[in-house]
Design a protein that fits this description.
Blueprint (H helix, E strand, L loop, with lengths): L12 H39 L3 H6 L11 H43 L6 H9 L10 H11 L5 H26 L3 H8 L4 H12 L1 H17 L2 H6 L8 H7 L9 H33 L4
Helix pairs in contact: 1-12, 3-4, 3-6, 3-9, 3-11, 3-12, 6-9, 9-12
């Protein structure tokens, strides 16, 4: 190949230049990503370092100093014994039962609205989804009065019922988008085989919704686990109160928790959502993609 000036240009010169630019872009991106990772991991490293210290070492030294001993297990035991254990078990039950119940009821509602073509289905959907329109603080006073009137205040059943109800609107929104995107051939073929509506929902639709349902489980479990406001308002005893109000109570003036114990408690409180995300990571992007097709 010759240029306008008569010089010779190798045929692969353009490819080499593009390859060099691509390598430069990858190197720059890797360096920037490494810097971001360092700044992101540095606070976590400080948390782990201080969780290994005892009370005296934590108060007398600096936060960035390396621990002189291994007191992590002792701090974890202290945090668990100061009420975090009961809050952990309570929130775990609320997160699993509340999110699973909300997903099941929302799936039934979305199936009825979309696949059974209920009269005024859009209005029913808007009615359900209207639960997300108002700020959650608006519900506090009427919800507290209703719970005290019906004997649901400071009970496990009351907390589970609330978490199921508060999670249904968003779950219905996601499941409706998935059911809209599903082909009608499945349903028509099932009816020809003699399946009724319940069999179509339970044996055909639910197995196909595994990915979006697992994504909803992650989202709703995380929200329930991190809830502080309603846990403080609707509960007061240790055997009912969730983990976040319990963790907040450990930081009170008369709680008697030292710095390393609080840090260990925070580490315990962050484990379930992290482990759940790691377990459901293969379904995360798949579920988001499938649930957004019909919107």
């Amino acid at each position: 190949m010759t240029t306008a000036s008569g010089g010779f240009t190798p045929p692969n010169a353009g490819k080499s230049a593009r390859a060099r630019k691509e390598r430069t872009r990858m190197v720059v991106g890797g360096v920037l990503g490494g810097i971001i990772c360092v700044f992101w991991l540095l606070p976590l490293l400080l948390v782990f370092m201080n969780a290994f210290k005892d009370k005296r070492e934590y108060n007398m030294g600096e936060s960035w100093q390396l621990p002189q001993g291994f007191h992590l297990w002792e701090n974890l035991q202290n945090a668990w014994a100061q009420g975090l254990g009961s809050g952990f078990v309570n929130s775990l039950s609320y997160g699993l039962v509340g999110s699973a119940g909300a997903i099941l009821l929302a799936s039934l509602a979305a199936f009825g609205i979309v696949r059974l073509k209920l009269p005024r289905g859009l209005w029913w959907f808007l009615l359900i989804y209207s639960g997300t329109v108002f700020p959650f603080q608006v519900y506090l006073i009427p919800l507290f009065k209703a719970y005290t009137s019906f004997g649901l205040y400071d009970t496990w059943v009351g907390m589970v019922l609330f978490y199921i109800a508060i999670c249904i609107p968003f779950c219905t929104f996601v499941m409706r988008g998935f059911f809209v995107s599903m082909p009608w051939d499945f349903q028509e073929a099932a009816r020809l085989d003699g399946c009724n509506d319940w069999m179509i929902f339970w044996k055909i639709m639910l197995p196909l919704t595994r990915a979006p349902m697992l994504v909803l489980l992650l989202f709703q479990f995380t929200w329930i686990w991190n809830d502080l406001l309603f846990g403080l308002v609707l509960s007061k005893s240790d055997n009912v109160r969730p983990i976040m109000p319990t963790l907040a109570g450990m930081q009170g003036l008369y709680a008697g928790s030292d710095g390393p114990t609080l840090i260990a408690a925070v580490m315990i409180a962050s484990l379930p959502t992290l482990l759940l995300f790691l377990l459901l990571r293969p379904y995360f992007m798949q579920g988001l993609r499938l649930s957004s097709v019909g919107d």
